[in-house]
Each structure stands twice: as C-alpha cells, then as structure tokens.
Design goal:
Distance between the termini: 59 Å
Low-confidence stretches: none
Shape: globular
Number of helices: 11
Order of helices and strands: EHEEHHHEHEEEEEHEEEEHEEHHEEEHH
Strand content: 15-25%
Radius of gyration: 21 Å
Structural class: alpha+beta
GO molecular function, one term: monooxygenase activity
InterPro entries: FAD-bd, FAD-dep_Monooxygenase_BioMet, FAD/NAD-bd_sf
Largest sheet: 6 strands, mixed
Mean pLDDT: 88
Cofactor: FAD
Protein name: FAD-dependent monooxygenase
Strand order of the largest sheet: 5-2-1-9-18-17
Helix content: 25-40%
Keywords: FAD, Flavoprotein, Monooxygenase, Oxidoreductase
Length: 366
C-alpha cells in the first residue's frame, strides 16, 4: 500500500508565516490557492510606504497565487502592465495589492503587532514566540522576515546573519518629466566617478508612467552608517530612519547630485534630498547553505539576500512560493515537503546571490 500523502489526509496542513511583506503575503496566497490555511505574523501595525520599484512578472505571479487572487492583483496594478513585464511598479502599490488579496482570502489570517523573537519546533509542530510572550503553533513555519531573519537563526544557527555588502543605496521617487510620460523602458544606469544612478519609470494602475524611481549607489559614506549604529562589523543592524540622518548629509548629497547627474533626472533627485524624501538602505547579501530544517523553512530575503542590482528580489520570492506549494503535492510529511523545497530552490538561490556579488565586490568600499 502506498504512503498516504498530505493532500489526501482529512487534516489540512496549517502554516505559520513570520513576516507580512511581499514574500510572506505571496506565500500565504500560494498556500491558499492549494487549499492550505495560514496565519501571517506581522511585526508592524499597518505598514507605511517604503521601497521603490518592483518588477512583477504576471505569468509567474499567477502560477504562484492562483487565478482568483491574481485577478484582484491584476486590477490593482494594471493587467497589461504586469502581463508585459516591462515597467516596474512602486513597492507600495504591489504590497497593497497583495495585502488586499490576502485580506479577502478566508484561508489567510494576518495578525499585526506580532513581533516574533524566537522560532522552533518539536516532533508534532513548529512554533513562533512573540515579544509579548504569546506562542503560536502550526504544522509548518515559514520565515519571510527579511534580511535580519529571526527564523533563519533556527534553520541555520551557524550562519544566522546576512553580510554588509559595503555600500548603501539612496532610494527615492520623483515626478517624471512630462516629455517622458507613458514611455516604456528602463532601468537606465549612469556612472559618475565612483557612484552609480539607476533610474526606472514606475507604472501606475492606469498603466502609465508619470513618476520614476531611482537608486543612488554610494560606497563613500560607510563611516556615517557605522557611527549611527546602522552597520556594525559585517552586519547591518537596521535601515536608518530619515530623521537619523543629519541635515548636512542631505544637503551634501543634493550638492553632489547637482554635479554628478544630468537632466532630466537631476532635478528630481536633488529635490528628493532637499525634501528628505529619500530612504538610505545599507545593502546586505546572504548566500544560503540550507533553507529548511524539519518543519521550519525560510524564503525570500530571509533565505537569499542579493544586491538590488539583480532586480530579481520579488521574482525570486515568487519562485520560492511556487516551490513551496509544489513540494506539498505528494509529500508524505511536512518535513518531506520542506526537504523537497530546499532541493528544488537552493542551487538557484545561491546562483542568483553569487552573481550579484561580483558587482558588489567591484563597487564596495568596506
């Protein structure tokens, strides 16, 4: 008699997902498309707008989250835009579309203000403990909790931390000059001295580009981020708030931008610095050696952190979600499913991160 698979049993596998950003929401929607319920533990109480640009490959996303959820996401982001995979969307627009789809799905529960400080497992379940002392349990647990992942500490305690890549990217959005409205294309890259500027039109729900996102790659201010405690040794401790950065730094960046960059992008970049509407993001990298341990696994930036130069962060998280759901089809136990997920994804995860490191090592000043 052949072994009974998870999908053939009357008990539905339940999942805990630590982290309610893009990777966590995509995984929850993917599990729901397979009839598997999940609870998403999100440390914030309503995310605020952050991030800049996300490329959404419609066919891959539909494969991950299923047709029903994809319809809503397509309406929010513009069906033609994500089908063509031509222009990036603002991070906030993608997050909002996925969050709305998750909130509308009965098999998904999103719990906010649930700051997970520890994860583990026993023979019968996986668990997450929040800072208020509550313990959440499920059949499996997925860490989608970013580059400073708590869950990664359980999966691979020997290598718990991502590594500082040696530079920051200043991220902003600006109005696209009217002559460029609606134009497809990008990203474009411009070099000046030791710095690089990446520019990409952002498509809105009306499938037009009226704004552009940009990232200024800067390896000259490592001492600043170390002095404020954002970077310590080889580890990034946090992404600085705009209020952490002194006024004279914003003024200096605006002055440098005046000299380095050309129109039509220069004015928007300079204005963003003068208005303090820029996020300084220290870049981390993590090459995984393992992404699953028993009933616990990591995905997205918790599993494989790569330079934004690859432009593939969300695409890789979607691939993780697809592999996770596929692994449960035919698996005889949660542990078996997560072993299959690791076998399917680990080599590609490593390849993508290592490919980006060639840029980082040529660019960074540690």
């Amino acid at each position: 008699m052949s072994p009974q698979t998870l999908n053939s049993r009357p008990h539905r596998i339940e999942a805990l997902i630590v982290g309610g950003s893009l990777g966590g929401l995509t995984t929850a929607l993917a599990l729901a498309s397979a009839g598997l319920p999940s609870t998403v533990l999100e440390r914030t109480a309503g995310r605020t707008q952050r991030g800049v640009a996300i490329l959404v490959a419609g066919a891959r996303l539909q494969r991950a989250i299923g047709t029903n959820a994809y319809r809503g996401v397509g309406r929010a982001l513009g069906q033609a835009a994500i089908s063509q995979y031509a222009l990036p969307h603002a991070w906030w627009d993608v997050y909002s579309a996925l969050r709305d789809a998750a909130d509308a799905e009965p098999l998904i529960t999103v719990v906010e203000k649930a700051n997970v400080v520890e994860a583990g497992q026993d023979d019968a379940s996986a668990w997450a403990r929040t800072e208020d002392g509550a313990t959440w349990t499920a059949d499996v647990l997925f860490g989608a909790d970013g580059y400073r992942s708590v869950v990664r500490r359980h999966v691979d305690g020997r290598r718990p931390n991502a590594t500082y890549a040696g530079y920051v990217v200043w991220l902003g959005q600006s109005e696209l000059p009217p002559a460029y409205h609606g134009r497809a294309g990008g990203p474009d890259f411009f070099s000046s001295g030791s710095d690089m500027l990446a520019v990409y039109p952002l498509v809105d729900s009306g499938e037009r580009a009226t704004r552009f996102g940009w990232g200024w790659f800067d390896a000259s201010r490592n001492s600043l981020f170390r002095s404020m405690g954002a970077v310590s040794g080889t580890e990034v401790r946090r992404t600085p708030r705009t209020t952490d950065i002194p006024d004279d730094v914003y003024a200096s960046m605006a002055a440098v931008g005046e000299r380095k960059w050309a129109e039509p992008w220069r004015s928007g970049v300079i204005s963003a610095f003068r208005d303090r509407e820029v996020v300084a993001t220290p870049i981390t990298e993590y090459v995984p050696e393992r992404v699953a341990s028993g009933r616990v696994a990591v995905l997205g930036d918790a599993a494989h952190v790569q330079t934004p130069m690859t432009g593939a962060g969300f695409e890789e998280a979607v691939a993780d979600a697809v592999a996770i759901v596929d692994a449960f089809d035919g698996a005889v136990s949660p542990e078996d499913a997560l072993r299959q997920y690791e076998l399917t994804r680990l080599a590609d995860m490593r390849r993508r991160v290592l490919g980006g490191q060639s840029f980082s090592r040529s660019f960074a000043r540690r």
